[in-house]
Amino acid sequence: MPVTREEARAAAYPRAVIVAAVVSPHPPLLLRELTGRVDVAAGLRATAVSALAGATASAPDVVVVVGGDHTGGAWDPGLPLDVRRFGTTGARPSPGTPTLPLSLAVGRRLLDEAGWSGPTRMHTVARDASAADVDALAGELTRPGERAVLLVLGDGSARRGEKAPGYLDERAFPYDDELAGALARGDADLLEHLDPGLADELMVLGRSAFAVLGAAVRREGATPQARLLHRDDPFGVTYLVALWQLA
Amino acid sequence: MPGAGLFRHLPVPSPRPATVAGVLKLGRREFADTDLLVMAIVNRTRDSFYDRGATWEEGRALERVRQVVAEGADIVDVGGVKAGPGEDVDAAEEVRRTAGFVAAVRAEFPDLVISVDTWRAEVGRAVCDAGADLLNDAWGGYDPVLAEVAVEYDAALVCTHTGGLAPRTPPHRMSYDDVVRSAIDDTVALAERAVSLGVDRRSVLIDPAHDFGKNTWHSLEVTRRLDEMTATGWPVLVSLSNKDFVGETLDLPVGERLAGTLAATAVSAWHGAQVYRVHEVRETRQVLDMVAGIKGTRAPARVVRGLA
């Protein structure tokens, strides 16, 4: 029986397995030094870090971090964070030094706090990424033969009240409910097909990153064991932490 | 809580220590040189200019200590003799007013830094026996034995500039080639003498003594150029509270000098003074915390705006 090249490759390199995915928000205030003498995000951070520590306890070959940003691309995970652009009195990176964008910077810090020092890859996905862009990135996340943990950084709506960053938009509530529900029950299809236009209007910075998670899980053909570990909106922005076990 | 150790991501703001010793040791307590300390005035007098006997009675004085501690005072400065001319108070009477009270404060507040404002060695000995940590020699080494008492009790010492005036003497036609130079030279000489006698280098402060041997112009210049004094590397104490240089600058009576006092406090903090001897603790604490936030030596309390 003839063997196609793809079948031969699949036999030689077992396909990649995403063993787990962790979803965390990426507000600057998760960076401890930015909030001053009070740690306003202690509970949120602890939940995200412990979800990551749990997911990486299975000793994956790699952690792949995906976060929303203005543009999509691969990032060197060894780049420094630039906390200074948000505040503190610390030194600035020397001019021209590349630094991680916010979503990946928060991911880097969470991984550090979870004790992960193993191989890491990082990608941004444009907030307005198309379905095709999302699918293409989902297909590039893992390499044949490796066991990977995904860390997906994204926030819900920032328009959840009169003091919220984007003021109040009542549509934020059903949108975030739907998003939280999908994360709670492992609904990859819903994540992949979140409405980009409405997400933009509601200042949902995580839409395209969530879509990448949805597409990656669809490609795996796995059924996630999902748990929503944290949901709140103390400053008018929805923060969600979820853990999906896939294998 | 002082220090950046709690916040491992917080950068250390200054590459060099603000004072030569780097640490201020006041009796049993040690403070980082970036900590700004409030010293609350507690008068055991009938006639001090601001409170006019409000804490003459011991119970009221203890109540004031409780209040200023609750408001954030790091140090209390107990005084038994009005700074200006007034009722004659001999050493025995000064001891009666201060020593027993120091013992009572020490019993109730084991960790509070207790200072006593006195120029007399005899009084210094009595109050150190009772538990005082700091001798505030507001009359600039008039009694040279007071520094030896500090050595004897491992107490801290404030070295002040009076322009050579005897205790309780108001300035009259004082003039200086350079008042700041005089303040630095005299206080540093007193500080170095104290250390040579055996006072712990970490326990000596210098105080330009606003209004002591100075007219308002002199006190304003000392404030304006306080950075020259802090540049000596000795920790600087300032006593600005409701003083006449504030009153004359703003043409305001004693009860209306708080805003002016706090403005002088802010400028002094910007220039690096470390200890603030005051009547109003809560307001001073706020000003110092705000200036420290601006300087970048103290993290703000709680920052959320724009970071969610």
Name the assembly state.
heterodimer
Instruction: Please name the fourth-level CATH homologous superfamily of chain B.
Output: Dihydropteroate synthase-like
Radius of gyration of chain B: 18 Å
Shape of chain A: globular
Kindly report the average pLDDT value of chain B.
92
> What is the H/E order of chain B?
EEEHEHEHEHEHEHHEHHEH
Q: Write down the Rg of chain A.
A: 18 Å
Largest sheet of chain B: 8 strands, parallel
Note poorly predicted spans of chain A: none
Shape of chain B: globular
What's the CATH architecture of chain A? 3-Layer(aba) Sandwich
Beta-strand residue fraction of chain B: 5-15%
Q: Helix fraction of chain A? A: 25-40%
CATH H-level superfamily title of chain A: LigB-like
Structural class of chain B: alpha/beta
For the largest beta-sheet of chain A, the strand count, sense and barrel status come to: 7 strands, mixed
- Return the structural class of chain A: alpha/beta
Pfam families (chain B): Pterin_bind (PF00809)
Cofactor (chain B): Mg(2+)
Domain Pterin-binding (chain B): 36-289
Protein name (chain B): Dihydropteroate synthase
Question: Can you put this structure into words, describing what you see?
Answer:
Chain B: Belongs to the DHPS family. Chain B: Catalyzes the condensation of para-aminobenzoate (pABA) with 6-hydroxymethyl-7,8-dihydropterin diphosphate (DHPt-PP) to form 7,8-dihydropteroate (H2Pte), the immediate precursor of folate derivatives. The complex is a heterodimer of chains A (247) and B (308). Chain A has 247 residues and is of the alpha/beta class. Chain A is built from 8 helices and 7 strands. By secondary structure, chain B is of the alpha/beta class. Chain B has a single domain (26-295), classed as Dihydropteroate synthase-like (TIM Barrel, Alpha-Beta Barrel), CATH 3.20.20. An 8-stranded parallel β-sheet of chain B has the order 8-7-6-5-4-3-10-9. In chain B, strands 1-2 form a two-stranded antiparallel sheet. In chain B, helix 4 links the parallel strand 6 (134-137) and strand 7 (156-160). The longest helix of chain B is centred in the middle third of the chain and has 19 residues, at 179-197. The A-B interface holds A 27-29, 31-38, 40, 83, 86-91, 158, 165, 234-237 and B 7, 9-11, 13, 296, 299-304, 306-308.
